[in-house]
Amino acid sequence: MQIRTLLAGSAMLALLAGCAAGPTDDSADMAMDDAEEVYQGTLPCRNCAGIDLDVRLRGDEQSSLEERTFNLRASYREHPQEPPDEEYAGNWDVLSGTAVDPDATVYELTPDGEGQVYYFLRIDEETLELIDPQRRRFQNNEALQLQRQ
To answer: Fewer Cβ neighbours under 10 Å: the N or C end of the chain?
Structure first.
């Protein structure tokens, strides 16, 4: 339930933030697309066949916080209530260390406005894993991993 609450809060915020975005310069969009990393996976869900999660990170760890932006979309598979996709947008930051690994890299995704903050542990160049706000891994950690596309 905790993961679903995290996803629901973050997804709603991204949807609202996306609607508020204004027009942008095409050349800036092309530069942003080049620096975009896309991670996808399906998280477990008690009431449905899974939650498809799509996370898009723009910028890199050396960019300023304003240049590090994200979009997150959560889609519920075969949910009895057929909820709409949830979308969130905001900025991401780099944190150092977890409860058991002081050298670990953690990405903190903070939605614009209201919404849950997401924490992803960088497992390797290709894998992010959803972790809790105290930067601890969940027991079913392999089921919470997203793969780079």
So the answer is: N
